[in-house]
Design goal:
Elements: E1 2-4, E2 7-9, H1 14-28, H2 34-51, H3 56-74, H4 84-99, H5 103-118, H6 127-139, H7 147-158, H8 162-172, H9 178-187, H10 209-218, H11 222-232, H12 237-262, H13 266-274
Antiparallel strand pairs: 1-2
Keywords: Aminopeptidase, Hydrolase, Protease
Organism: Gossypium australe
GO cellular component, one term: extracellular space
C-alpha cells in the first residue's frame, strides 16, 4: 500500500505482491510466523470474497499450499523445548487451514475433538490446538446436522475455565452455514454468555457476514441493551480511537475491493500462483 493524502490506499497488483511476500516469509522463517500470517490470509480472503468471488477456490488452494509446509514442521503435538511462540503458531496455522476448508486438517481435528469428548484429560488435544479443533468441528455443522455444535456447547457448559469458554465462543460463528451462524449469534442473547464475552461470538465466517449484519441491526432484546450499556459505560479514549481506526479500515477495504475488481490481469496471476 502507499500513503496518499494521509490515507493508505491499495495499488494495482498489490494482491499478488502480498502473495509473494507471504511466500518469502514461509521460506525465510517457516516456523515463526503464526498469527501474523493467519491474519493476513483472513484479510485477503475476505477482500477477494467481496471483489472477485470466482477466484476464491484458487486463493484457498494457494494459501493451503503455503500453510501445509509450516503445519508439517509444527505437527499437531507439542515438542519438548519449543518456544511459546511456536506453541501459539501451531494453533493459528491449523485454525487457518480449517477455515480454508482443508479436509485432512478438519478430519484430524475432529478426530482429536472426539477423543477429548470422551476424556477431557486426553493429551491428543492440547490447549494450544483446541481453538483449531473447535473451528474444524464447526466446519462440518449444518442446519440438518448440529451434532458438532451441540458437543461444543456441552463442553462450554461443563467447563469452569473462562479461557476455554472464550475459545468455544470464538469458534461458534465460524460455520459456513448461515442458519447455524444465526443460531450461534442468538446464543449471545442467552443468560449463558456473560455480557463482556458476547463480542467473541462475532468472529463470523465469510458466508455468515450478511446474516450477522442483519442480526446486529435487528436484535433488540434486553440482553442486547445490556451489552450496549456495558460497553457504552466503558467508553474511553482508546475505544474511541479503535472505533475510528475500524471506520478507516472499512474505507480502505472498500477502495481495495474496487481496485481488485478493475484489475483485468488478476485472475491469471492468481491461477498461476495457485498452481505453483
Amino acid at each position: 500500500m502507499v500513503m496518499r493524502g494521509g490515507v493508505l490506499k491499495p495499488e494495482r497488483y498489490e494482491l499478488p505482491l502480498i502473495f509473494l511476500d507471504l511466500t518469502s516469509i514461509m521460506l525465510l522463517a517457516s516456523t515463526d510466523f503464526g498469527s501474523c500470517v493467519s491474519q493476513i490470509i483472513d484479510k485477503i480472503e475476505r477482500i477477494v470474497a467481496d471483489a472477485r468471488p470466482e477466484l476464491m477456490n484458487y486463493i484457498k488452494q494457494f494459501f493451503i499450499g503455503l500453510l501445509l509446509h509450516a503445519a508439517a514442521n509444527f505437527g499437531w503435538d507439542p515438542k519438548q523445548g519449543e518456544s511459546h511462540l511456536d506453541a501459539m503458531s501451531r494453533g493459528d496455522i491449523f485454525t487457518a487451514l480449517a477455515v480454508l476448508g482443508h479436509e485432512e486438517t478438519i478430519n484430524e481435528a475432529n478426530s482429536r475433538f472426539n477423543a477429548f469428548l470422551n476424556d477431557r484429560n486426553t493429551p491428543v488435544l492440547h490447549p494450544d490446538i483446541r481453538k483449531a479443533a473447535y473451528v474444524a468441528v464447526m466446519q462440518k455443522v449444518t442446519s440438518s446436522n448440529k451434532a458438532g455444535l451441540e458437543s461444543l456447547l456441552k463442553v462450554y457448559r461443563e467447563t469452569d475455565l473462562s479461557q476455554e469458554k472464550i475459545r468455544i465462543l470464538g469458534s461458534l460463528a465460524s460455520c459456513p452455514d448461515e442458519s447455524v451462524v444465526y443460531e450461534a449469534l442468538n446464543f449471545v442473547l442467552s443468560s449463558e454468555v456473560p455480557k463482556q464475552d458476547a463480542v467473541f461470538v462475532l468472529a463470523v465466517s465469510k458466508e455468515g457476514r450478511e446474516v450477522a449484519w442483519k442480526w446486529l441491526k435487528f436484535a433488540s432484546s434486553e440482553k442486547m441493551k445490556e451489552i450496549g450499556m456495558f460497553f457504552g459505560n466503558r467508553t474511553q479514549a482508546s475505544m474511541v480511537r479503535t472505533l475510528k481506526q475500524s471506520m478507516e479500515q472499512i474505507y480502505i477495504n472498500s477502495k481495495w475491493v474496487q481496485t481488485i475488481r478493475k484489475d483485468k490481469d488478476l485472475a491469471e496471476a492468481v491461477k498461476k500462483l495457485a498452481n505453483k
